[in-house]
Structure formats: structure tokens, C-alpha cells
Amino acid sequence: MIRIMETRNENTVIAFVSTHPGEILRAWLEDGDIKQKDFAITIGMPASRLNELIKGKRSMTEDIAQKLERALGVEASFWMRAQANYEYNERMLALRNDEQKKQMLEKIRFDRFSTSKSYTNILASPPHLPYSERKNYSPNSALHTKI
To answer: Is the pLDDT of residue 5 over 50?
Structure first.
């Protein structure tokens, strides 16, 4: 059984894993103890092309879906929906990964330049203090307050 975990991003559900229809077919063949080579002969398809489909290197086409429907009794529309879902999930994963990279870069920039304690202390410290004292400056410290 293939399990797909999901996350909600506002109103969009984004899968953590996208499942290629070839993976579903592989599981189906393994459950039936059917060899790829024998199945390829049964549906009239080169074994190399079937293997590429199962490995996710080839997309499901209407022609292949029709052959699977005749051989397995699983509707061609199921295989085509599986391909469409796979392509959609791949796009969503790519967008999510791009967004995560962008957020990570923004966080790194923000952390490096605005929340760094020593950098913030140097900017907030009086300019007449030497650098070594400015680095550890705290406006509330007894060392720098006037008595």
C-alpha cells in the first residue's frame, strides 16, 4: 500500500510524496506475482518501455492506460488520473521546495544582519567606546551606566 502524507498550505493540500502510476503498477504486478517481461508480452508492449514506466522514467499515456484496462480490468481513467495527480504533486512539491528555500535564505539574511547579538550591540553602543567594549555592550549594564 502506498501512503501519501499531506500538509495544508492555506487552501491547498500539498503531498509530501508524489506517486508515479508506474509505482502503482509495480505494486500491482508484485502482488499478483507477475513478471514484468511476461506482462509486457501480454499487453503487447516492449519490456524496456514497461520497465521505464514502472521506474517512473516514462509517463502514462492513453494507449498504455487502455492496454492496462484490458489486461487488469482497471479503468483507463484511473491510470490517467494517477498520472495527472503525479504531475500536479510534482509541481506543488517543486513550488513548496522553492518557497522553503526562499524563506530559508530570508531567515539567514535576517539572522545574520539584524538579530546577531554582537552586531546589534555594536550598533546600539555609544560610538566613543572601543570596539572590544562595544561588542559586549548592554545599555542596562552597570559598567556603562552613570552613577
So the answer is: no
Instruction: List the Cα angle 59/63/65 in 5-degree steps.
Output: 70
Q: For the segment 21-80, what is each residue's pLDDT rounded down to a tens digit?
A: 999 999 999 999 999 999 999 999 999 999 999 999 999 999 999 999 999 999 999 999
* Residue 115 burial (CB count, 10 A): 10
Residue 14, strand partner residues: 7
The three-point CA angle 102-98-95 to 5° equals: 135
Neighbour-count burial of 87, counting CB atoms closer than 10 A to its CB (0-12 exposed, 13-18 middle, 19+ buried): middle
Q: What is the DSSP letter of 129?
A: S
Contacts 24+ apart (CB under 8 A), 25-33: 25/53, 25/54, 25/68, 26/54, 27/1, 27/2, 28/72, 28/74, 29/54
pTM score of the predicted model = 0.61
Phi, psi of 130 (to 5 degrees): -65, 155
Grid look-up 506482462 returns 39
